[in-house]
Amino acid sequence: MNREENDLLTRTDTGTAMGALFRRYWLPALTVEELPEPDCPPVRTPLLGERLVAFRDSDGRVGLLEEACPHRQASLYFGRNEASGIRCAYHGWKFDRQGRCLDIPSEPSASGFRDAIRVKSYPTVERGGVIWAYLGAPQQQPPPPEFEWATLPTSHLFVSKRLQECNYLQVMEGGLDSSHLSFLHRGTIGSDPVIGMGGSGTDSRILKIIAGDPNPRYETAETDGGLLLGARRIADHGLYYWRVTQFLMPCFNIIAPTGDLSLNAQAWVPLDDHNCWSWAVNYHVDKPLSEAEREAMRRGGGLHVEFVPGTHQGRANRSNDYQQDRAAQGRGDSFTGIPSFAMQDTAVQESQGRIADRTLENLVSSDNGIIVTRRLLARAARSSLAGGPVPGLEPASQAVRAASIFAAEDRLGQVPRDSMQPLPRHARAWGV
Ligand code: FES
Ligand SMILES: [Fe+2]
User: Which of the four pLDDT bands, split at 50, 70 and 90, describes residue 187?
Assistant: First the structure.
């Protein structure tokens, strides 16, 4: 990849091609817990290089405004959230959730001056325990997100959001790269309570298959909403075992299911080009998560992490070398000695640099999923910058599931498509 292509895919400010692409979609911005009740404290919510502040007004509706007050640029974050608007701490100018100026205390209201003042605002929608934001042109606003997890009651979901101190793309590439499972997560993948593949019944069969075929074949196929990313392993009884992950535009995935474990989905949203929000979602489509499952997630199981209280920063982070335990690594307790699944990912992804320099890469065939994803993103980004169409805006293209399948066929294109295409809501997930 040359430098121009690397810049194209990693820069998301206003006016960039990827920035234009991200601004075509609803993006996860906050968990609903971050704005728990009317008139609660506002929250800084940087997205795509824009400094924004979110608040829940007296009627419980969410506003997402440019952080800088249009008077003299003080941060509205320090303002008072009161009586259906946020009042700047500096000179008391007040704005509602749509950015209209409600009051300028120093100006006689008869002057009409305040009617000409607005602060930039963006629409939001609450679904699946998440407050979503749309930062694009009003005339292009798509229907609300229809990813299956976003349509479920919150009893069926566990959602977490963490800060990663690097560009979104290298984090997303980690989420789409199943070849690292055999190394980075060795020693953790079988024992993790949320994502673990050990255990009884069909799960131990899968573990055996994965261990028995260290050279899976990777295939991809384009869909209306993104890509199918398939890993095919030789199973028993003359069958193949396919794990098929969905990549959905522009920054979402749904991971292939494993047995009766809860399903996993992820999203990666730039705060700016050097930091991203890494979202992890676990869910059952047909029943609530148990308290034991929730507790395991709160404690950093699966794709979640334990947080420094009151922050979105993992306890294991860049400043403490992700709590790597060299003795545990030496004993072979895990491949890395880094305690949790998600922090193993974070450590290697952040170690690639704030923006990974892809001009220095040497890619191999197991990187094929990443190569195809980059091509799709670059094509869509160029199209959106030129005002053209982009994939994955239609609700039907988002209402899909990932799949784990035993099949006789050896090509992804021949695997039964109905297992991956839109399925009736709340039917049992197509898993093994
Ligand atoms: S800077 Fe906000 S009211 Fe003056
Ligand atoms: Fe990983």
Answer: confident
Residue 408 Cα to ligand 2 middle (Å): 28
Contact 78 CB / ligand 1 (< 6 Å)? no
Report whether pLDDT(426) > 50: no
Q: Give the structural domain span for 104.
A: 30-140
- Return the ligand number nearest the Cα of 79: 1
Q: Is the CB of 93 under 6 A from ligand 1?
A: yes
- Predicted confidence at residue 417, as pLDDT, reads 54
Which of 66, 67, 71 maximizes ligand 1 atoms within 8 Å of its Cβ, making it the mutation to test the pocket? Answer: 71
Residues 129 and 164 in one domain: no
**Residue identifier of the C-alpha nearest atom 3 of ligand 1:** 91
SS (H, E, C) the chain: CCHHHHHHHHCCCCCCHHHHHHCCCEEEEEEHHHCCCCCCCCEECCECCECEEEEECCCCCEEEEECECCCCCCEHHHCEECCCCEECCCCCCEECCCCEEEECCCCCHHHCHHHHCECCEECEEEECCEEEEECCCHHHCCCCCCCHHHHCCHHHEEEEEEEECCCHHHHHHHHCCHHHHHCCCCCCCCCCCCCCCCCCCHHHHHHHHHHHCCCCEEEEEECCCEEEEEEEEECCCCCEEEEEEEEECCCEEECCCCCCCCEEEEEEEEEECCEEEEEEEEECCCCCCCHHHHHHHHCCCCCCCCECCCCCCECCCHHHHHHCCHHHHHHCCCCCCCCCHHHHHHHHHHHCCCCCCHHHCCCCHHHHHHHHHHHHHHHHHHHHHCCCCCCCCCHHHHCCCCEEEEECCCCHHHCCHHHCCCCCCCCCCCCC
Report the CATH number at residue 96: 2.102.10.10
209 and 247 share one domain: yes
> By mean pLDDT, which of 9-23, 208-222, 331-345 is the weakest?
208-222
- Model pLDDT, residue 239: 86
Q: Residue 379 domain-assigned?
A: yes
Q: Which atom of ligand 1 is nearest to the CA of 93?
A: 3
pLDDT at 424 over 50: no
Q: Is the CB of 385 under 6 A from ligand 1?
A: no
Q: Residue 208 sits in a domain of what CATH number?
A: 3.90.380.10
Q: Is the pLDDT assigned to residue 387 strictly greater than 50?
A: yes
232 is a domain residue: yes
pLDDT grade for 415, boundaries at 50, 70 and 90: low
